[in-house]
Amino acid sequence: MQKKKISTLHFLTPQPYNHPHFFKLIRTVLESGVDWIQYRDKKNDDALFTKIAKEVFTLCKKHNATFIINDKVEIAKSIDADGVHVGQQDLSLIDARNILGDGKIIGISTNNLQQIFEAQKNGADYVGFGPFQFTSTRENLNPIVGLEGYETVFQNELYQKNPIELVAIGGIDEENILALKNAGVKNFAISSAIFSAENPVEKIKNLKALIQ
Predict the structure, then answer these.
(1) pTM for the whole thing?
(2) Which of 40, 126, 139, 172 lies 20 to 30 Å from 89, alpha-carbon distance?
(3) Could you please report the per-residue DSSP string of 88-150?
(4) What is the pLDDT of residues 111-141, one digit of tens each?
(5) Which of 109, 40, 122 minimizes the C-alpha distance to 75?
C-alpha cells in the first residue's frame, strides 16, 4: 500500500486529560479540512492511550485523514495507524521501522542539521524541525532554532542535493508562517494555536490560507 503524502498542515493534539472537549475538537479540526492528526498523550497508561487512539483513528478514517501516533510504536502497530512520530530520546528510528515495516510513515523530531542527515540515513519519511520558538505544549524543550535555523537548513548544499520533507514546529501561528515560508518551509505542525482558539474553524481557515 502506498504511503500517504506528507501534509502541509499537521495538527498535534492537546493532551486529552487537559482538554475538556477533546473529541469534539478533533471532529471540528477534521471537518475544517485538516488531513493529518498526530495524537500525543504523555500521561495515560497504555490501555487508555489505546482506547483514545482507536477513537481518534476512527474519526480520521471517516475524513480520509492521516493518523500518526506520537512515540508509542507498538500501539501504532497494534491498531494499524498510518505511522508514528518519535523523538530523539524515544525508540530509535531503525527499531521503529523494523516494528512497523516499510509501508508506514515514520517521522522524527530534529533540532539541527546533523540530526536531519541522520534521520535521512536511517529512513525517516519526514523530520519535524524546531522548536521555532517557545511553546508551552512541550516539556523539556530543545534549544530554540528561530528563523535562522530554517534558513541554515534550506541553504545547506548537502540538504539541497538530498532534501527530506521538513515540518516546522514550535509556536507556529499566523504571524510567523509567511516568514517561515520565505525561508523555505512548506509544512507546518500546529497545536495550541488551534486548540486554544476561541473559534478553531476560523483559525484553521486562516492558517490554511496562509500555508497554501
Answers:
(1) 0.95
(2) 172
(3) TTSS-HHHHHHHH-TTSEEEEEESSHHHHHHHHHTT-SEEEE--SS--TT-SSPPPP-HHHHH
(4) 999 999 999 999 999 999 999 997 766 666 7
(5) 40
- 3 state SS of 8: coil
All structural domains of the chain with their residue ranges: 9-211
Q: Which residue has the higher pLDDT, 2 or 3?
A: 3
- Tell me the residue type at 167: V
38-52 per-position pLDDT tens digit: 999 999 999 999 999
What mean pLDDT do residues 134-163 have? 88
How confident is the model over 99-122, as a mean pLDDT? Answer: 97
Q: In whole angstroms, what is the distance from residue 207 CA to residue 187 CA?
A: 12
Report the CATH architecture of 9-211. Answer: Alpha-Beta Barrel (3.20)
Q: Which residues contact 90 (CB under 8 A, 6 or more apart)?
A: 71
